[in-house]
Predict the 3D structure of the following.
Amino acid sequence: MKFLASLATRLQRLVPDPFILALLVTLLLATTLPASGKAADWLGVLATSAVVLLFFLHGIRLPRENLVAAVMHWRLHLTILATTFVVLPLLGLGLSSSMHGLLPAGLWAGLLFLCTLPSTVQMSIALTSIARGNVAASVAAAAASNLLGIIATPLVAGLVLSAHGNAAPLSGIWKIVLQLLLPFAVGHLLRPWLGAWAARQRAVLSWADRLTVMISVYTAFSAAVLGGIWKQIPLVTLIILTALCAVLLTLVLTWTGLAARMLGLNPADARTLRYAGSLKSLVSGVPMAKVLFPSAEIGMIMLPIMIYHQLQLMTCAWLARRQGEASDDPV
């Protein structure tokens, strides 16, 4: 019985989380019933409005004290930000340069864009807690990463895509300012009045985040399906893309361990660096892609983000549990 219970637990860890399953259903719906004509136009307006609301709510929910904490623990947080916005983009460029012929240009653009995204908020904090890391530092790191990511992601993406030979999405920065940064700033200014309400509605707002991503994915993949995306990406290419995402995750997890040792971080801070530095935000990435890239390209841009998201959840959940069960183990 113990063996069966252990086996069931191990299998459960490999099952995709419900959000990924919902995204797969969304992809299936977009493939079989893609939105077109006036329906696509209305969905595009809805998706844009949902993105604006998403970042407005993010501004309301961001405690200012988290940013102050990030400044106080500067060595750890600079390393996390450098991992997120410098090391991972460089790793992506290294993969694209050495294995250029393995993927079409659109998927390489998506993989490189993935490398420039900010850290995920909820999962990096949750995994740090499971691993018995520095949870307070993880909260501060996630807040700083997502705030800086609104500007840093399009700028770094422009640099790495230009280096790879793709068109840089810098022309979309004004959309980032209007659709993401301005609503975020307004929401944060209103936090003294709306912050308590947002805290009470945390579960509802979390579902709103996911619904925004699903709407964006459906509209993007509807356009991609009508443009023939599945004819351009055979199964072998998807397998190669998944393998490259796994290689990228392995490299960044290795880097965070080495960086923690070089900096002499204590085990709790080292675990914070691992999970806050290596995870990438699907909730931020999909809306940003929709703002920055032409609709004809968004389908390929989103695929690496969704694949990496599931890989990081499965791998890091296993690592965090292992470290939590043996908190004295070296990183």
Notes: The chain has one domain: 36-322. The CA atoms of residues 68 and 266 lie 21 Å apart. The longest helix spans residues 295-325.
